[in-house]
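REQUEST ID: PR-0412
SUBMITTED BY: lab tech R.K.
PRIORITY: routine
TASK: structure prediction, single protein chain
INPUT:
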Amino acid sequence: MPVNLTPPLPEQLLPIKGVSLGIAEAGIKKPGRKDLLVIALDAGTKVAGVFTQNDFCAAPVVVAKEHLSNPDSESSIRALVINTGNANAGTGDEGIAHSRAACTKLARLLGCDSHQVLPFSTGVIMEPLPLEKIVAGLPSAIANLQADNWFAASQAIMTTDIVPKAVSKRISLDGAVVSITGIAKGSGMIRPNMATMLGYIATDAALSQPLLGEIVRHAAENSFNRITVDSDTSTNDAFILIGTGQAGNSTITDNTSAEFTALQDSITEVAIQLAQAIVRDGEGATKFITIQIEGGETSGECDRVAYAIAHSPLVKTAFFASDPNLGRILAAIGNADIDELNVSRLQLYLDDVLVAENGGRAHGYREQDGQRVMKQSEITVRVVLNRGRASATIWTCDLSYDYVRINADYRS
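STATUS: complete
OUTPUT:
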């Protein structure tokens, strides 16, 4: 089961003025499951996004980026169409044609232009998108459109996820009540390098298009770009931020204003909760691990040390076994390719337990103390490099037998 992660309650998820969501069971991979989601947006809604850095990006990523960069400023995005069960990745020109066709079909049903629809897919790579099933399911999804359908929407985008992931937050801006709600999916093939596999956050706050883009990049960098399950960047990663502007606050146009900072912080907080939920629901995960690197010369070298630890199979399996074989962490640090790293100066902690210093085992370290921490379901690994003031934090999980089983059986 996921690490200290429970499903959200539908009543906890706030509707966002100007957004409605509809789901359908289209039978894309398996019958009898929610696998198609339509998100309809009122006219005037602003949308910004970031996408996978994988060079083998999926057809819907290509099309969504194309539609978001459409120079026709009067054609704001009016809908998103999302399917699970098939990634439409590694499908060549046919895949791009299928993504465009899905946008065209939905646009006709909603009465908008096809360039005002963004497509997203997740699931098995290198299999043709069953376009006919998606097209057949669209009328049901549209008939199901509701403002309070966020929980069902979070279920409809799941693949190997065990728990749906959704978060809401309400803040006050300029005397107006502003709502923020987000959903995400992801469990394996997680080292986003921009965002999660699929994530959508909407707010009714009014703000300019440039600032919406600024916030989505900031939120991604401080949340979804801080997680890793297995070091694999998906072909389909996308993180979309929606701003309907219907909360009644004065439109935010200044990124130095208190209102902008409050909104950016709140959206980022929602994104962090969604990102951490992905790690807690990592395929086969039994431990949630925070890795904090302090005292680096640059944030980049801190990242390299953090990911060297998080991506080491030997470290991850030791955590799964609750085995304080902590020399594996030192080996990972030493493999991070840090110029002129003085290992005699760094310190390694598990929670509050000092494990290593002066190039070896700390004088007061006792294995039973390491064992105590390793048995916990939530663990912090803290490395102090003592070579500067930079720092970095990422979140990861252990590597269990079930990770192999889930991925070996994924297509069956």
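NOTES: The first strand starts at residue 19 and ends at 24.
REVIEWED BY: pending
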